């Protein structure tokens, strides 16, 4: 029986490119695998796959009775809805250890690096499997995306070295220029439905029994949101009510200024203010130097919820 390799709900580039790259590796070592996804591609991910000649992985939402290898998370809220009826055979991730549990032993590759594809590169090295040019390209792009072209505090020496090695394999001469092209694609928000923007890179977290949704939009200039911000605020309030969430946060991240404006809808705004030690004004606050949801937003929020 084939193993499905799949990332999280509302998949980002790391989740999609990681599923493709890990599937190829597993097939090369004799582990029959199929790449899958839990949602539609973001514009950035579509750009990456098109550039290197890949189709999107199979859209598959149900995994009951299947064997599954999880990529880029270990959270129950981000997994397939019927994951409890599947057998998890492995996890590759760069986030905190979540609440997925298994009834059988599994393979785990979890490292404190900036991107799951950095770990997958380590797996290729471990198994001594050559990385095809096109797969090296999408892996490189995923790392550039997750590390914000090395600006994110999550970025490590391992991420940088992997990008350099993958760029050589992919024959990409200027990977930072390609990274900027990716973020230009991310910054093209005009004409996109507001709910689609809010959900473009959105994850739910269980924080001491409270459901908290956190989205992030990374652009090269926050001015693109000038005419959209009021609608974004209205929509996160609606999303909070629809999903019975305690809070919904939306990070509007300016990668050039290296900071984020945080939009908040919450049952208890004081918890958000306590987490980041800054008062909100009209449900908003600027967080200088904040680029990473994983490292700079989630941990302090979980601490105040606990």
UniProtKB/TrEMBL annotation:
It is an enzyme of class 3 (hydrolase). Keywords: Hydrolase, Manganese, Metal-binding. Pfam families: DHH (PF01368), DHHA2 (PF02833). It comes from the Bacteria. Its EC number is 3.6.1.1. This is inorganic diphosphatase. Residues 179-305 form the DHHA2 domain. GO terms for molecular function: inorganic diphosphate phosphatase activity. It catalyses: diphosphate + H2O = 2 phosphate + H(+). Its cofactor is Mn(2+). It comes from Shewanella surugensis. InterPro entries: DDH_dom (IPR001667), DHH_sf (IPR038763), DHHA2 (IPR004097), DHHA2_dom_sf (IPR038222).
């Amino acid at each position: 029986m084939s193993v499905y390799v799949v990332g999280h709900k509302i998949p980002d580039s790391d989740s999609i490119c990681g599923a493709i790259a890990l599937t190829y590796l597993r097939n090369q070592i004799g582990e029959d695998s199929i790449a899958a996804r839990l949602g539609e591609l973001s514009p950035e991910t579509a750009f990456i796959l098109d550039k290197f000649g890949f189709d999107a992985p199979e859209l598959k939402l149900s995994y009951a009775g299947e064997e599954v290898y999880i990529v880029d998370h270990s959270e129950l809220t981000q997994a397939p809805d019927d994951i409890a009826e599947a057998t998890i055979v492995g996890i590759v991730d760069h986030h905190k250890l979540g609440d997925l549990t298994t009834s059988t032993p599994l393979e785990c590759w979890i490292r404190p690096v900036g991107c799951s594809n950095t770990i997958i590169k380590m797996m290729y090295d471990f198994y001594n499997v050559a990385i095809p040019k096109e797969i090296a390209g999408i892996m490189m792009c995923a790392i550039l995306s997750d590390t914000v072209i090395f600006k994110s505090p999550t970025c490590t020496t391992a991420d940088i070295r992997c990008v350099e090695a993958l760029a050589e394999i992919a024959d990409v001469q200027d990977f930072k220029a390609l990274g900027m092209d990716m973020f230009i694609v991310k910054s093209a928000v005009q004409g996109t439905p507001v709910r689609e923007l809010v959900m473009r890179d959105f994850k739910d977290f269980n924080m001491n029994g409270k459901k908290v949704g956190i989205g992030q939009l990374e652009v090269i200039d926050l001015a693109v949101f000038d005419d959209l911000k009021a609608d974004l605020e209205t929509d996160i309030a609606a999303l909070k009510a629809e999903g019975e969430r305690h809070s919904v946060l939306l990070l509007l991240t300016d990668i050039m200024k290296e900071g984020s404006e945080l939009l908040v809808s919450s049952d208890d705004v004081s918890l958000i203010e306590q987490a980041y030690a800054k008062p909100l004004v009209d449900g908003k606050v600027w967080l200088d130097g904040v680029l990473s949801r994983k490292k700079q937003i989630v941990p302090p929020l979980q601490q105040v919820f606990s």
